[in-house]
């Protein structure tokens, strides 16, 4: 009976789980979804592959757990709305860039974007978490017409910037301060969220 | 001697080569770089795997040939510059969206973007072809300061929009007419290429 699987949570379980997730985030970000394997994550986390399966079931389960975003959409939403409507684009840009300035935040977001390029589950997560839970409620709170389209446009610029800066590697973006980039894309996000979408700028 | 490989170009060779490339484009776009195999492309093109190797050498060679962009940067550049400076953002948006409205153009561009998310060779191609050969010369011709940064910002919005509309699948973008999208992102590209990058919009 000594080999019976232990159920229930023991001290140490959450430590192991967190260690696996940290390795998984790094691997998903470095290799993308396709080339990351349960076995490779287990090896790097120094646990048996069965332990990874026990906690996460499948690669998709592992990915979903690892891709938990480094922010709470509701909290960010409240923070962004707490300020003048005419500068919300700049606050949104600053907030997003601040997240990718941290190693963990960058690994989580770039891992999700990389995976979303080739995996429909990851793409859905990107749509749900960034557009659905953050940008759409933001556009709706701002009472702009066409909230869906506005949220999608803002998402396209934010994801596009993170992709160009941190994934496909446009060097000048990596070399440019977050504050300068926030100044550059802030007006874009502002117009997408609150400005006219057609006609002259 | 009947099995001797035939060298030199025969009628039919370019047809086979084109057929392989068409399959490869479709597979790279549907599956991404990692999950596309030489063997799978050969099977779908109804040729032996050795034929694919003969023409393209490696998966990277196949990818490079398949990802030939559906436009000539020099020709596009000349076309874009042939018009008022203050509407160049709209012309650029319209041109890019016209390309992804065609099946071939869409498959080639989305294949390249998908692959660039996980493969450095594809990322380099994306940087070289879209930013280096098209957007950077465009920003330089417009005599704007910080041409590198401007080209990178314009690229981030264009690639971000194509990714959101055609890869990660934000439905509202897929449902919105190209003309409406060009009106929406045209002013963004215009400001990135010619406008002030800092301070109020």
SSE layout and pairing:
Two copies of one chain form a homodimer.
Chain A: H1 13-35, H2 38-45, H3 49-56, H4 59-66, H5 73-81, H6 88-101, H7 103-116, H8 120-141, H9 147-167, H10 171-174, H11 178-194
Helix pairs in contact in A: 1-2, 1-4, 1-7, 2-3, 3-4, 5-8, 6-11, 7-8, 7-9, 8-9, 9-11
Structural features, described:
Two copies of one chain form a homodimer. Chain A is an all-alpha fold and 201 residues long. Chain A is 74% helix and 0% strand.
Total DSSP E strands of chain A: 0
User: What structural class do helix, strand and pairing data of chain A support?
Assistant: mainly alpha
- H/E series of chain A: HHHHHHHHHHH
Largest interface: A-B, 50 and 49 residues
Amount of helix of chain A? over 70%
What is the chains' assembly state? Answer: homodimer
Which outline of chain A best applies?
elongated
Distance between the termini of chain A: 73 Å
Summarize the structure.
2 copies of one chain form a homodimer. The first copy, chain A, has 201 residues and is mainly α.
Keywords for this structure?
mainly alpha, homodimer, 11 helices, 201 residues, disordered N terminus
């Amino acid at each position: 009976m000594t080999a019976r699987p232990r159920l229930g949570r023991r001290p140490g379980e959450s430590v192991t789980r967190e260690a696996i997730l940290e390795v998984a985030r790094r691997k998903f970000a470095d290799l993308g979804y396709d080339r990351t394997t349960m076995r490779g994550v287990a090896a790097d986390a120094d646990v048996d592959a069965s332990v990874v399966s026990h906690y996460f079931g499948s690669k998709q389960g592992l990915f979903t757990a690892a891709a938990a975003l480094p922010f709470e959409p509701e909290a960010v939403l409240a923070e962004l709305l707490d300020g003048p409507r005419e500068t919300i684009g700049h606050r949104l840009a600053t907030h997003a860039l601040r997240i990718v300035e941290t190693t963990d935040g960058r690994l989580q977001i770039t891992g999700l974007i990389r995976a979303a390029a080739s995996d429909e589950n990851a793409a859905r997560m990107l749509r749900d978490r960034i557009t659905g839970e953050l940008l759409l409620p933001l556009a709706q709170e701002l009472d702009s017409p066409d909230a869906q389209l506005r949220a999608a446009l803002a998402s396209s610029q934010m994801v596009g910037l993170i992709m160009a800066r941190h994934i496909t590697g446009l060097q000048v973006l990596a070399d440019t301060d977050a504050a300068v980039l926030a100044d550059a894309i802030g007006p874009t996000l502002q117009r997408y969220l609150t400005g006219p979408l057609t006609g002259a700028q």
